[in-house]
Design goal:
Helix 5 runs antiparallel to helix 14. By secondary structure, this protein is an alpha+beta fold. It is elongated, with a radius of gyration of 38 Å. A five-stranded mixed sheet has the order 3-2-21-33-34. A five-stranded antiparallel sheet has the order 23-22-40-39-36, with helices on both faces. Strands 1, 18, 19 and 20 form a four-stranded antiparallel sheet that branches. The chain is 36% helix and 22% strand.
């Protein structure tokens, strides 16, 4: 007998002697007893292990699986300005709109659901589209857009297509121009369609679209991402794989059916795509790849976006109405026929005054990202911090247990109050628009600044934009006979022109702009994304002769000149192979005082000051006045401008800088620098923020004026104020076009030629005109700077920016006539 068998028999003998074993018996009964005894011991040991050794781990796991986190969304802070009575006006609102969605899996009786939804969708598309009231033609366009998913046979445009006539340049128009020159036929057809389009026709279209949207079963393709990089699109198309589909140029989809079931192949393809996405800077999309390669059901179907609260209420009402109308889902569970219908909140930033102050404000896009201006600069402050409620949860009733909550309080965003005066702002916006059209300019900017406390009281640019419709800057339209000037006028080089080639849209080169065989496109708003740039803070330029005020101030402050010191003006100075000449050859000649060099804007007079000054001394003042560095005003994307290194700049470059050429400055830098020449000599930190309020505590923090170092002596400041007044009273162009009888206004004009391909251009449409001045040379309250870019009515600033300055200062004097003159030299 084997030892193992023998040993087992010995154990059996021992157990037979036990009473319990005798009672149980032998053989099979004994085996069953041992089996259950062993099983019982295993269970006991396991329970001890769980209750003692794994208690903490399992408790944590339980908590994770039975914890519900409720997000408390922070409200974005408001941006306010004050009117003349010091009443705050909110320029921003946070509007809650809703998206309507369906889960087709939990929708019963599709036809009935479509019939229930159709009147609601009609109201959204044809009465109030989000926040906008809709007219009939917009209703039809909305329905066309809503129906875009219908198969081609059913998706015929309702409105007749407006004829597109391309202007190709050099007087050449598309051949079909004469066919469509008379729009009578098109207009007649359009009116017929509008008149005959009934609510019944609209609802029929909506039902077709809903039937197409509400699908059950497996998706044919899965959406991956939208990308703007055309090189990435080309790289993906170059793979020639059946599972990648590119739609509408830049939308990437994955067809999982073409590769389904081949796990190793999917893994290899994901790895390949990941490398390409990483190469072109799209690492965020990589995480979406595994899901995109899985066959998915139609579960989330967005029916309508950004519906208003009235539409949302109608959705909730029908859900309540039909809650007892039951169907059985795939698992035979009784469910309401509208169980799969739902709403999701979508908070958008709304600007109730439209384009008012838009360049200062910036905008928040539909994804909640802030761009430009105050919105971007204070984004972290404005958006606040979301809160959370974390607690034990039941799958049926949500959070449970009175003492089971962990709360992280929501911190709503701060409110920002601006220094802008609404009355002045409204007026200068109207003046800027009028001036742009009158002088046929590219753009006009106006800045109003208080030199004593550093507050920006008004700032505008025209053309501008409506932050509620920021996408207009990115939408293209065909260059047609109405916009042919963009192609034919060679001074219009700042307007972006696009061409479409090889399935791509790109900026046209000069040769392509002039090519009469290529169709060209421009932004819907003409100027494209350049309208977002606040040119008062974010665009540096050659200031021209307005800089002469500062050069004279530096000469006075260093005691190198006196206003009535005489200098010899030959009208022309040779500097190596370059010549510096005066623009005004009539008044700038012979022996004359430095005051007249400022009055008549004599370049040679500035050269004579530069010759008396130490070069480093001049640039030391330039630095103290803040040029070549940001002012740190609270506006996103401020630029520093450019001041060349004093030790390396050429002699002619140094001379040019003294009369505002070859030096790049921003308007905000100019008004702050001029402020130091009229406020007693101090550099004052500019600001556009009056104060900041924490809505969580109600605490309001007042902005404090930041007075920097003294740059000029008080006497220098007094002399410059007087010189600006003399210029207004003595310069014949100022007397004729700018001066106000009986008013102590003062200022200086400046015309700067625009550099193009390394050369300065001359003539109308090739210069920038500026005028800077004060409302009262005895006791200035405001500095006003006007910029007119590329005026085509005149190349000289005195006839463009100067006239605009007069309009602004005349209004401000009337607007503030009841205001006490509180500004005095800073002590």
């Amino acid at each position: 007998m084997p030892k193992k068998y023998k040993k087992n028999n010995e154990w059996k003998k021992i157990f037979k002697d036990l009473t319990v074993c005798k009672e149980i018996g032998t053989g099979r009964e004994l085996g069953v007893f041992f089996f259950f005894t062993l099983l019982f011991l295993i269970i006991i040991i396991k329970l001890i292990n769980i209750s003692i050794f794994q208690k903490r781990e399992i408790t944590q796991q339980f908590n994770r699986q039975h914890t519900k986190i409720s997000l408390l969304k922070a409200k974005r802070g408001g941006i306010y300005v004050y009117d003349k009575s010091k009443k705050p006006i909110n320029l921003t609102e946070n509007i809650t709109l809703y998206n309507i969605f369906l889960d087709p899996k939990y929708i019963g009786n599709k036809t009935k659901v479509i019939n229930i939804l159709t009147p609601i969708i009609y109201k959204h598309l044809c009465e109030y589209y989000g926040l906008r009231k809709v007219n009939k033609i917009q209703c039809i366009k909305n329905i066309e857009l809503f129906s875009s998913s219908i198969e081609a046979s059913e998706n015929k445009n309702i409105l007749p297509k407006e004829p597109e006539i391309a202007y190709l340049g050099s007087g050449i128009i598309e051949e079909n121009y004469h066919q469509f020159k008379d729009m009578t036929g098109y207009n007649q057809k359009l009116n017929e369609v509008i008149a005959g389009f009934t609510k019944e026709k609209a609802e029929y279209k909506i039902k077709l679209a809903l039937d197409n949207k509400i699908k059950k079963g497996k998706r044919k393709i899965n959406y991956l991402a939208f990308v703007s990089n055309n090189e990435l699109i080309q790289a993906l198309e170059g793979l020639h794989t059946p599972y990648i589909e590119i739609k509408e140029g830049n939308y990437i989809y994955i067809n999982p059916h073409s590769i389904a079931g081949n796990t190793n192949k999917i893994k290899d393809e994901i790895q390949k795509l990941s490398k390409i996405l990483m190469k072109y800077g799209y690492p965020d999309i990589i995480n979406k790849l595994p899901k995109a390669f899985k066959i998915q059901e139609y579960r989330y179907v967005k029916i309508a976006s950004n519906v208003n609260s009235e539409i949302a209420h109608m959705i909730n009402t029908i859900k309540e109405k039909y809650k007892n109308e039951i169907f059985r889902d795939e698992k035979k569970i009784p469910t309401s026929i509208l169980h799969g219908l739902g709403l999701e909140e979508n908070t958008i930033r709304y600007y109730p005054l439209g384009s008012f102050l838009s360049n200062v404000l910036g905008y928040v896009d539909k994804h909640g990202n802030a761009h430009y201006g105050i919105e971007e600069y204070f984004n972290d402050t404005l958006k606040g911090t979301d809160g959370e409620i974390e607690g034990r949860a039941s799958s049926l009733i949500g959070n449970v247990g009175a003492n089971e909550f962990d709360i992280k309080n929501v911190q709503h965003g701060d409110n920002i109050y601006l220094t802008i005066d609404v009355g002045i702002q409204k007026k200068i916006e109207a003046i800027a628009k009028e001036s742009k059209e009158r002088y046929k300019a590219d753009s006009v900017s106006i800045l109003v600044y208080n030199p004593f406390n550093g507050e920006v009281k008004a700032a505008t640019n025209y053309p501008t934009f409506n932050p509620n419709n920021y996408n207009n800057a990115y939408t293209l339209k065909l260059v047609d006979p109405k916009t042919k000037y963009v192609i034919d006028d060679t001074t219009q080089v700042d307007i972006p022109v696009y061409i479409k080639t090889g399935g791509q849209t790109k900026i046209a080169k000069i040769s392509e702009r002039q090519n009469t065989k290529i169709k060209k496109y421009i932004p819907k708003n003409i100027y494209g994304a350049s309208v977002f740039t606040d040119k008062n803070f974010s665009l540096a330029y050659d200031p021209g002769s307005i800089f002469k005020v500062l050069t004279v101030a530096i000469g006075l402050d260093t005691d190198e000149i006196d206003l009535y010191d005489l200098y010899d003006d030959p009208g022309k100075v040779k500097v190596g192979r370059f010549s510096i000449v005066n623009a005004d050859k009539k008044n700038c000649k012979g022996e004359m005082p430095f005051l007249d060099a400022l009055v008549y804007s004599c370049n040679i007079g500035m050269v004579r000051i530069a010759q008396r000054l130490n070069r480093n001394m001049f640039y030391n003042y330039v630095k103290k006045l803040g040029f070549g560095q940001k002012t740190n005003i609270e506006i996103a994307n401020e630029v520093a401008g450019t001041v060349k290194n004093p030790s390396t700049i050429s002699k002619v470059g140094y001379f040019n800088n003294t009369f505002g050429q070859a030096i790049l400055v921003t308007p905000i830098q100019m008004v702050v620098a001029l402020g130091a020449t009229v406020n007693g000599g101090y550099y004052v930190q500019p600001t556009i923020v009056k104060g900041q309020e924490d809505p969580n505590t109600g605490k309001y923090t007042q902005h404090k004026t930041k007075i920097g170092k003294q740059v000029f002596k008080p006497q220098t400041s007094k002399n410059i104020r007087n010189a600006l007044y003399v210029a207004m009273e003595k310069n014949p162009d100022y007397i004729k076009g700018i001066r106000l009888e009986g008013k102590h206004i003062g200022g200086k004009s400046g015309t700067s030629e625009i550099a193009y391909h390394g050369k300065y251009m001359k003539g109308a449409g090739r210069t920038n005109g500026s005028y800077i001045g004060v409302d009262n040379t005895d006791n200035p309250q405001y500095i006003i700077l006007v910029q007119v870019r590329r005026p085509r009515s005149s190349q000289w600033s005195v006839h463009t920016a100067g006239i605009t300055f007069k309009q602004v200062v005349k209004f401000i004097l009337a607007y503030t006539k009841d205001t006490h003159n509180i500004n005095k030299d800073i002590k």
